[in-house]
Amino acid sequence: MKRFAIAFTVLLVSYGSNVLAQGCSVCTKTAQSLDARGAHGLNTGIIYLAFLPLVIIGTLGLVWWRMRPR
Q1: Choice between 10 and 59, residue whose per-residue pLDDT is larger
Q2: How far is CA 20 from the centre of its chain?
Q3: Residue 68: enclosing H or E segment and its boundaries?
């Protein structure tokens, strides 16, 4: 059962990366048309938007890890 769960997770992650990769071309073309300051602002905005979900996932992972039976 554990092997099935791992295989399913790997399949799901590999499938999802192809679907989500479509936005990268838009960001690349936008960044190419900007100057250095605008590109830095775009990168800062991407990091800012990614920070909150990563903190939430990290917190949930930490709580799960602390609460698991030993």
Answers
A1: 59
A2: 10
A3: none
66 and 56 fall within a common domain: yes
Do residues 55 and 62 lie in contact, with contact meaning Cβ atoms separated by under 8 Å? no
At 22, list the tokens.
């479509």
Residue 64, CA distances (Å) to 14, 50, 60, 69 in order: 25, 21, 6, 10
Assign 52 to helix, strand or coil.
helix
Instruction: Provide the domain count of the chain.
Output: 2
Query: Residue 34 carries which DSSP code?
Result: S
Structure-block tokens of residue 53: 């979900």
pTM above 0.70, yes or no: no
Phi-psi region of 32 (alpha: psi -120 to 50; beta: other; left: phi over 0): alpha
Same domain, yes or no, for 9 and 29?
yes
